[in-house]
Amino acid sequence: MNLVPTDAQQEALAQMLRQACWSDAEIHTRLQQAVSPTYWAALNPQLAVNRDWAGASLECASLDDARRNELLNKLEGEGYFQLDSLFSPSAIARMREGVETLRRAGWPPVMAYVYDEFWLFTRGPAIGRLLSTVLGPGYKQNCNLFNYYLEPGTGVGEAPHRDYHGAPQRFSVWLALSDATLDNGCIYVIPRRQIPPDLAESFDQVETYSRRDLKTMLQNCRAVPVPAGTVLCWGSELIHWGTRSSRKAEPRITATHSFISARVSPTEFERPSLDAHRLPNLAERLRAISRAIQDHVESKPGLVKYLDFAQRLPDALADSAANGHDTESADESIVE
């Protein structure tokens, strides 16, 4: 059975998606809602929008030097590590509830980044110290963010890839908001020390692999199922991917951020950079969301529905500011 869609099938799918796009009237309404902190606060009252978090953190546990060194050693050898029990189950449950509520209200899950908690989880002392050690002081957050919602039976994770091949000094932080299991598309990796250097270097260029090389990569890949609340972190060269969810699985819901050292210049794809040591204001969040939808629409065709909205969102922000609505106020620094 051929599982690869034909050109005709792909065009039919694209046509269906175009027909499902929001009308101009709905886009107008959605833009008005998007720039309103009051709207978001009412939609998910268990989450925060522009709260004063000075001195606060989502983290409910700390990392001692021994544990931090253990994680950094794993990063050096394998290209990734996982960190459990850093956040309270209640905080993770609130964030997951927020994503589910957004979907029921017709929003794409990436709109969860209007809420403080979806930025705060990478701005606590434990994650902050790890990022400072890996990337150096003054590290920035780039604009590559996304909220993944893999639906049972139809959802599929990203194809095998590296986040930034040939561009070192980048680091990704991935948070599971639901259990990521073997059945619902958990992350798979090829640990750095388990792939021959020549295969690693050529991964993004090779179109056809020999049977020997394919067996080497398959035998050395590792599934990383994790419970909700777990953080996965990896460097720019880690080969990783997600798989297809089974029909009987629960959704796989995750949030991701990417960071860049102050010692290197961001690429065009990574701009604009964000201050990694404070919460962005609502306008900055909405611009990042707009960019995320547009950047991911090619790999996630379902986002076509929201493309016009995303393209018009920056202008809606400008109009809102011109009318005296404040979405630009900066939040206080929260990382010492």
Q: In CATH's first tier, which class applies?
A: Mainly Beta
Question: Which architecture would the CATH scheme give at its second level?
Answer: Sandwich
Oligomer class: single chain
Strand content is 5-15%
Q: How many distinct helices? A: 11
Q: Which blocks of ≥5 consecutive residues have pLDDT under 50?
A: 332-336
Tally of DSSP β-strands: 10
In angstroms, what separates the terminal alpha carbons?
57 Å
Helix content: 25-40%
Anisotropy-based shape: globular
Look at the helices and sheets and give the structural class: alpha+beta
CATH H-level superfamily title: q2cbj1_9rhob like domain
CATH topology: Jelly Rolls
Total domains: 1
* Biggest beta sheet attributes: 7 strands, antiparallel
SSE order, one letter for each helix or strand: HHHHEHHHEEEEHHEEEEEHH
Mean pLDDT: 90
Radius of gyration: 20 Å
How is this fold's topology laid out?
Layout: H1 7-19, H2 24-34, H3 37-43, H4 65-78, E1 80-83, H5 89-104, H6 117-120, H7 125-135, E2 140-141, E3 146-150, E4 170-176, E5 187-190, H8 197-202, H9 211-220, E6 222-224, E7 231-235, E8 239-242, E9 252-260, E10 274-275, H10 282-296, H11 307-322
Antiparallel strand pairs: 1-7, 2-9, 2-10, 3-9, 4-7, 4-9, 5-6, 5-8
Helix pairs in contact: 2-11, 10-11
Task: Describe the structure in your own words.
α2 crosses α11 and α10 (282-296) runs antiparallel to α11 (307-322). The protein is globular. The longest helix is centred in the N-terminal third of the chain and has 16 residues, at 89-104. The chain has 336 residues and is an alpha+beta fold. The strands form two sheets. Strands 1, 2, 3, 4, 7, 9 and 10 form a seven-stranded antiparallel sheet that branches. The chain has a three-stranded antiparallel sheet with strand order 6-5-8, covered by helices on one side. The model is unreliable at 332-336 (pLDDT under 50). It contains eleven helices and ten strands. It has one domain (16-322): Sandwich (Jelly Rolls).
